[in-house]
Amino acid sequence: MPDAPIAPDQTFVWPLPSLDGHCKNCGSPVQGKFCVECGQKTTVKRINLREGWNDFWSRVYGFDGMFPRTLRDLTIRPGHATREFLNGNRVKYYGPVGYFFFLISLYLLVMSMLGITAEEIGKATVGALAKPGSSQDQFNSNLFNWMTENQRIGAFLMIPFYALGAKMFFRRERLNFLEHSVLIFYTQGHVQWLSIFGLFSFVLVGYFPSFYFLLILQVLYYAYACVQLYQTYRPWAAFMRGVLVNLFFFGFFIILTTVAIIIAFIVNPELMEQLRPSNN
After folding, report:
1. In 3D, which of 122, 130, 104, 108 has the Cα closest to residue 208?
2. Measuring CA to CA, which residue among 53, 52, 194 is closest to residue 110?
3. How far apart are CA 198 and CA 189, in angstroms?
4. Tens-place pLDDT, residues 95-126
5. Residues near 159 by beta carbon (within 8 Å), at least 6 away in sequence
6. pLDDT per position as a tens digit, 261-275
C-alpha cells in the first residue's frame, strides 16, 4: 500500500500511533509495543535531541545491553560467549563477523582521527627496518600504507587459515569449518582493543605496544578461549592445541607471503632494485 500524502496543513499529534492498527514500516497488523514482523515501534516519538540520543544508545547497546555484555564476556570468558552463540543464543551477543569488522573499522577510524600514519605505527611496532630516506625505507613505507588500506580484507582472508587449523587440532568437537571460525572472529576482533588503546598511548606518550608483545598476547588469549570452548579436551590440552592453531597459521602465512613476494618481484622487477644495498 503506497504511503498517503501528507496535507500541508496536517498537524502531527505526538507520539504518532500506528495507522489503523498496522505497522508504519511494513504494514503488518500490530499489537503491543513492537511489530512482531520487523520490530518497528507501534508508537513513534517526535524527533528531538533527547529522542535522538536515546535512539543512538539503543543501537549501540542493542537489545538488553548487547554491546556491553559482548565486551565484558569476550574479555573474561570468550570461549563461554562463543559456546552460547553456537548453542543458538543469537540475541545475547553481537554477531562474530559484525563485531570483527566493527573493531577493525573503529581502529582505522581512530587512527585517522588522531592523524597517525601507518608508517608511524609500523616503525613503532617493529622498529626501523632501513636507513631513513633510503629506497628500502620508502618501500617499507609504501608496504605499511598498502597493508593499512587493505586491512579489512586482509584480516578477513586470514580467518579461513585459522579455522582450518582449528578444524585439524579440535576434531573431537565435531564442529564444522564455519562454527570453528566463530571463536576466531570474536578473538581476532576483540584483541583490536589493545591496538586502539595503543593509538591513544602513542599520541600521549609516544609509545605503541610492540608487534611481538601483541602477537604473544593474541596467541595466549586465543588459547585461553579454547580452554573454555573445547570442553571435550583437558584444559592443558585445549590450551596447547590453541597455541598449535596459531603456529599452523603463522607457518601457512609465511609460505603464502613468500610466494606473494616472489610473484611481485617477477611481475615488477623494479621492486628488487629498490631493495638493493647500493640504493640504500
Report:
1. 122
2. 194
3. 15
4. 999 999 999 999 989 988 999 887 788 777 76
5. 181, 184, 185, 188
6. 787 667 666 655 555
Q: Does residue 15 have a cis peptide bond before it, meaning omega lies within 30 degrees of 0?
A: yes
| Cell (9 digits) for 274 | 629498490
pLDDT digits (tens, 9 = 90+) for 129-178: 545 555 555 655 666 666 666 677 778 888 998 999 999 999 998 899 99
> What cell does 50 get?
533527547
Distance CA 93, CA 76 (A): 14
Backbone angles phi, psi at 170, to 5 degrees: -125, 50
Report the distance separating Cα 78 and Cα 70, nearest Å.
9
228, 83 contact by CB (below 8 A)? yes
* SS3 call for 115: coil
Task: Find out whether 230 and 241 touch, Cβ atoms under 8 Å.
Answer: yes
Q: What is the pLDDT of residue 14?
A: 44
Looking at residue 280, its amino acid is N
- Specify whether the CB–CB gap between 82 and 225 falls below 8 A: yes
Alpha carbons 118 and 193: distance in angstroms, whole number: 17
Q: For 66, which DSSP code?
A: H
Residue with cell 590440552: 237
Helix (H) or strand (E) holding 34: none
DSSP 172: G
Residue 54: all three cell numbers together = 536515546
CA distance 249 to 257: 12
- What is the C-alpha separation between 247 and 177, in angstroms, rounded? 18
Query: 44, 23 in Cβ contact below 8 A?
Result: no
The percent of residues in the chain predicted with pLDDT above 70, rounded, is 69
